[in-house]
Specification:
The complex is a heterodimer of chains A (557) and B (353). Chain A is built from 22 helices and 23 strands. By secondary structure, chain A is α+β, with helices and mostly antiparallel strands. In chain A, strands 4, 5, 6, 7, 8, 9 and 10 form a seven-stranded mixed β-sheet that branches. In chain A, strand 18 and strand 19 (472-475) form a beta hairpin. Chain B is α/β, with parallel strands linked by helices. In chain B, 54% of the residues are buried. The chains are: A alpha+beta (557), B alpha/beta (353).
Chain lengths: 557, 353
Amino acid sequence: MNQFAQLFTTLDETNKTSGKVDALSDYFRAASPEDSAWALFFLTGRRLKQAVPTKLLRAWAMEQAGIPDWLFQESYDAVGDLAETIALLLPPPTGVDETALHHWVDRMNDLRFQGVEEQKRFVLEAWSQLGTPERFVWNKILVGAFRVGVSQQIVLRGLSKAKGVDVSQLTERLMGDWKPSAESYEQLISAATEQENLSRLFPFFLAHSLEDGDPTRLGPVTDWQAEWKWDGIRCQVIRRQGETWLWSRGEELITDRFPEIESLAHALPNGTVIDGEILAWADGRPLPFLQLQPRITRKTLTKTILRKAPVVLMAYDLLEHQGQEIRALPLVERRSLLETVIQNASGNPCVKLSPLVSGADWLAVSAEQARSRELGAEGLMLKRRSSPYRAGRTRGDWWKWKVEPYTADAVLTAAQRGSGKRASLYTDYTFSIWKNGELVPFAKAYSGLTDIEIQEVDAFLRKHMREKFGPVRTVEPLLVFELGFEAIQRSTRHKSGLAVRFPRILRWRRDKTAEQADSIESIEALLTLSQATQPISNTENPENPGSASRERFLFDL
Amino acid sequence: MKPAIQLTERGLYCPQGDFYIDPWKSVPRAVVTHAHSDHACRGCGQYLTTPEGLAVLKVRMAADAVIETLPFGTSTHINGVQLSLHPAGHVLGSAQVRIEHAGYVSVVSGDYKIEPDRTCTPFEPVRCHLFLTESTFGLPVYRWPAPGEVSSQINQWWARNRSNGQSSVVYAYSLGKAQRILAGLDAGIGPIITHGAVEPLNQAYRESGISLPPTRTVSQVDNAKEFKGAMVLAPPSAQGTPWMRRFGEVSQAFASGWMQIRGTRRRRALDRGFVVSDHADWPGLLQAIEATGAETVWVTHGYSAVLVRWLQERGTEAQVLETRFQGEAGDTAGIEEADKPEAGQTQPEVAPS
């Protein structure tokens, strides 16, 4: 437990990705296969069912700490995390923990079938042996809420570094219902089979934002290829030796989610890898991204789902041609090969060549960019014609140039505590707009304020709380914020009748009172505007430019 | 019998003796528990402190301030009030103020901790009728690790950073916390550099007979190469300033009792948080209160409502006293307090709100 808790602490304290990868790699080098298997299980966000009800853990912790309920509650309010509160309240350990992680987990797994008395004995035994950091991690596992600030990708990079196995291979082997054990772990890190080498994808090349929106500093327009920036699921389609793999940008295998693309790939020659974007598409234009969601989130794809959101592959680039890796070729050459490949597959309605946007000069290209929303795009991609296909988010050759977001002034009406770094601060806000003289919830947003502003809003909220609904507190409607968002849709699930995509706080409107916030009518005007044009939104999550939100819910599969 | 202390808009006042204790506005006569700026304000006619606290208080007060001293445990009489000072263990020279009038003993503890700290005289419990306590860390989740344990964590971290070619920066209060951390450093690891706000207080500590490892300010380092791998002690306000640039690649840590909570630690986005406080933790508060045998407890700055309720449930007469003392900045509500500009001699470390 000690080793694992140490790893957790290091990951928690390290801000740099390279530091996290190193810590993980050190752990996997040192830990036993049994422990490594469970560590991997927990670190990649897999969870066990809660072994002991929270209520009991809380009661036992109070008993051990000798404190009444109200004081536990006060402590919890200050800490903002139950597992941590308990870890801190318990008296110092009386024993020394030398038990391996997998032993604790095995015993815990038996616990669900035991009576309360045995459960209690076991939990108290663990508490009395473990130090504070170990207890914290252990409590998190007990309540089925273990979470650490690393993506599966980073964990696998660490494992890859320790064991010399490719990340994509690890990803593929971990797919589905991976059962942690020494055997499955050994299998996971064993050398790649020929079959596995076939499915290998290339690292995605990701663009930087053109922050100032001024492309003229990029040099002559003739050096650049412009394409629409679409909002879908970025992917690589791999066709090798009669088999097809579809990888998302988060290196999740999503072949079975998109049978249309899989059948399209049958028409591709062996030794082909296409970089593209999956879009829900109807009547010659993309559907809002939300339409793609059932494809990802539903366990089984029904005919209805397939029909409601027909998809296409918007082909951007060609990375492997006739069995040859061609990433080093200049973009223009790759593009021309891509055109040939797509032409040969033509007749299949599921594939489209990403159209090029041309303009005699930057001014003309700007004019095109300005009409992105009309086409359902969210801006332009600018790619240097001479550029190779690079790995990761490399600056200089690819830029995304997005149109300005929609905005609305909304009133903060409810708040919830954040988690992790923001536990114990109210950082998750619900914003409302006016509808028939009443404030109705309109969007939730988590980011966009500076740390100082967050502190200030938090202090304000604590003084103006009204009611409590679970973790959510309603607050007096006094603060107004300008929200930005990417798309608007009608929604029967939202009280306002509208759903917006990627809402985030643009700024705090200290100059406005709640009465001056926007009303449903003004948002609906944007909707009318956008329905003529059906806007869609970012591929990147503006809150967190490093990670596409897509990956986040792919993990929830 | 009635307490000889009352709360006024200038601070705690003893009407019978006509003096204030830690006033937050200027008054003719101020008994000062310690030199932190929420306890020692400038502009008073006369100050009374301990001989140990004199050098430190001088750093913080105007050059012409009139400061008298009274040794620990020695009584003086002011208008029929018996006054004496007793160690509070908070920072060098910090005192509890004992006031006896007409047989009734009141003790104002100021800030205190009961853990050992070799940079100041350890806390001594004083029997009294009325005890006025702080409650900065008045929640049972605050329980400090052994001081030696934290020192060795800091030294290990420093040594590892140094071997990685990084400098180590610890942000800590320039009065008290910085010297306490300094005292635990292993000077064999490398050079120790202190910020201009910290160094005058190091000197005051040394003048008062506290031995500290050798330190240098930036201007005393001739060869810039020496910065690499050094330990740097700086006030929290130095974070992100140009002053920091000279140290190249740094690993940064904050030293505070608030670092006990993961969320607070992570919110500061530093590499490490060391749990070091010059305030009593929860067991410390309870132990200190118990040892006074007080029948009445007044609770100020911190989780005062929590501590009052806990005491009341155990049959002690307790009440919250709204003062302007601040405890340890850097909690969820007060991070910006610790970040306020600080220049040691010219500006207060923690400005009264």
